[in-house]
Task: inverse folding
């Protein structure tokens, strides 16, 4: 396990999804807005289409990772927050990773799979479109407020 | 006795592609099909959008190869503007395209295909993935990540963002390269080159042990298509669209990309949303051709960089001028990684690479434009029509994976016939059926212009249509 000082990122916020699939883009949407509000040097933001192997590198340099994603298996507008752990016994690995797979990659390659939370928001629409539906946008706004409040607290504690 | 394969509609979550293998009464393979069940949507979505938005929009088709769409879309827009792109703008686009080639090929080889080759096609499926690879050979896995990162970092340094860089625009690129960034990239080149060389040496050592797979992984005569430079060299950004036959002889060359429909037809099959492009003069399905790394190494005369040319020479000495097995896509991919790194070095040392003139500005001057470039997986075609205000009226995209659709289908059948025994079914048999598709490194989210996932579902059906076995990769 690397020394604590070798984690230059205290909180890494990763929003992922396709911004041209309506609510699927809620993760990048939140990251974009949150990055305007949280300027602490201990926090870094990553907005991406999907989680890729090279993302394991910034993850490995982080103390805590917050993933934000749209969910197809939650009622529209419902938001959940769950802890997620590194997983290295995945049978099916393709072009992209799940949060646990990415943490596993970080652990396996770089020796550190940080603690992580996944905020999932039930999407209303995955149709082709470049904006969030009003209901999901309101939920995303609330998540921005919540994280803008929490992240400075986490940074002080970590 | 029912002989028809039932196409099971799959949802976005369950999967977008599946392979069905139909057995006869003796338990032997009667037929096999590769279905892509995503729907199209982006061509409709772009109608009414300003042409200047097209690179950024189409780059969002896919999280795997956004740079490729940026290139083809920007080139189609250049054609609509009818402008000459400043030479440095072209060089910077080439640089980004090559970085994409390296990172994409690295992912395909290290993460997706090497577990089969290094751990074995019949090894425990729980271990036969990138994590199993890390456990067995952590150094190799780390090098795969580094090579991937090398390409992605160049894309980020040039475009500001790794996934959907908006830096390539109609008329050129929107910012020049700085000396600091050039030097940053130059510093990373030696390590990337060392990894590429080492990986090719490793591949050549292990490839001999896959004679059965080489013999039956989509191993049949087809034509091959790719861009080549005006001198006939390996080319990924622009040039002549060349078709070669199964011996490597040139049968067609197209300099005017707007005439691509004279040589490429698109057949719509009944069992897949992905169309079946074919070489028009030969008709469907006789006009089957392949694209991608293997095709590019067959259509080109040479690479034009010393290390890649030495490897190409050995490739041709050992396999012949036009090796027909799709298993050789793996080797071709590694040679292209080497070529990509050498070419990036060459471009960065061009005296005008830091020139500030990188973009031509104009209003639309043509109602119709075509952009063709080489994506890692093969030739990518964007074709747009706009009104007098530059608003999109119509778009057609033929993507790399689509060109290989006929070959992938025929390959699935060939490998199923060779390896699948309905009376003594083993997991490794179905894995090989899946692996033949992996040789082509398909990107189905591009191919059908739908949301970016590529799960695969393999089903083995009895003559009565009963599912005997299945394998799913979500």
Result:
């Amino acid at each position: 396990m690397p020394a604590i000082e070798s984690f230059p990122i205290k909180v890494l916020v990763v929003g992922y999804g396709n911004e041209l699939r309506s609510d699927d883009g809620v993760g990048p949407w939140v990251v974009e807005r949150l990055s305007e509000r949280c300027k602490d040097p201990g926090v870094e933001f990553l907005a991406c289409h999907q989680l890729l192997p090279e993302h394991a590198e910034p993850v490995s340099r982080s103390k805590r990772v917050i993933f934000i994603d749209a969910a197809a298996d939650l009622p529209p507008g419902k938001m959940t927050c769950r802890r997620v752990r590194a997983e290295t016994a995945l049978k099916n690995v393709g072009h992209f990773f799940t949060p646990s797979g990415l943490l596993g990659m970080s652990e396996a390659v770089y020796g550190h799979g940080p603690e992580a939370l996944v905020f999932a928001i039930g999407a209303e629409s995955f149709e082709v479109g470049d904006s969030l539906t009003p209901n999901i946008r309101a939920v995303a706004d609330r998540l921005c407020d919540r994280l803008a409040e929490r992240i400075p607290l986490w940074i002080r504690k970590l | 006795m029912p002989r028809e394969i039932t196409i099971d509609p799959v949802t976005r979550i369950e999967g977008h592609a599946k392979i069905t293998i139909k057995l006869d009464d003796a338990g032997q393979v009667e037929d096999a099909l590769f279905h892509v069940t995503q729907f199209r949507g982006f061509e409709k979505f772009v109608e009414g959008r300003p042409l200047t938005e097209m690179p950024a929009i189409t780059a969002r088709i896919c999280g795997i190869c956004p740079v490729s769409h940026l290139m083809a879309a920007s080139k189609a827009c250049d054609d609509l503007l009818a402008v000459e792109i400043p030479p440095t703008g072209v060089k910077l686009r080439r640089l980004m395209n090559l970085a994409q080639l390296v990172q994409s090929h690295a992912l395909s080889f290290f993460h997706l295909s090497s577990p089969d080759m290094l751990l074995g096609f019949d090894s425990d499926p729980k271990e036969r993935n990138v994590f199993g690879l890390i456990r067995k050979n952590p150094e190799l896995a780390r090098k795969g990540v580094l090579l991937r990162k090398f390409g992605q970092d160049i894309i980020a340094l040039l475009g500001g963002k790794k996934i959907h860089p908006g830096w390539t625009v109609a008329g050129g690129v929107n910012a020049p390269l700085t000396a600091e960034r050039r030097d940053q990239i130059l510093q990373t080149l030696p390590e990337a080159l060392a990894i590429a060389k080492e990986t090719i040496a490793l591949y050549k050592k292990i490839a001999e042990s896959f004679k059965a797979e080489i013999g039956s992984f989509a191993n049949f005569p087809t034509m091959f298509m790719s861009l080549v430079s005006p001198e006939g060299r390996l080319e990924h950004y622009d040039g002549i669209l060349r078709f070669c036959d199964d011996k490597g002889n040139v049968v067609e060359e197209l300099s005017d990309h707007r005439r691509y429909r004279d040589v490429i037809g698109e057949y719509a099959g009944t069992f897949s949303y992905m169309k079946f492009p074919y070489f028009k003069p030969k008709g469907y399905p006789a006009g089957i051709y392949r694209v991608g790394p293997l095709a590019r190494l067959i259509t080109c005369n040479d690479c034009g960089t010393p290390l890649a040319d030495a490897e190409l020479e050995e490739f041709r000495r050992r396999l012949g001028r036009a090796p027909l097995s799709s298993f050789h896509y793996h080797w071709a991919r590694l040679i292209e990684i080497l070529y990509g790194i050498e070419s990036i070095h060459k471009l960065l040392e061009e005296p005008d690479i830091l020139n500030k003139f990188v973009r031509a500005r104009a209003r639309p001057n043509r109602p119709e434009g075509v952009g063709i470039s080489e994506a890692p997986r093969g030739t990518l075609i964007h074709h747009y029509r706009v009104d007098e205000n530059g608003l999109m009226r119509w778009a057609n995209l033929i993507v790399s994976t689509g060109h290989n659709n006929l070959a992938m289908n025929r390959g699935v059948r060939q490998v199923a016939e060779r390896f699948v025994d309905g009376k003594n079914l083993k997991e490794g048999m179905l894995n090989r059926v899946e692996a033949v598709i992996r040789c082509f490194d398909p990107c189905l989210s591009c191919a059908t212009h739908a949301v970016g996932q590529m799960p695969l579902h393999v089903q083995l059906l009895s003559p009565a249509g009963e599912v005997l076995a299945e394998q799913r990769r979500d």
Observations:
- Chain A has a mean pLDDT of 88.
- The CA atoms of residues 51 and 97 of chain A lie 5 Å apart.
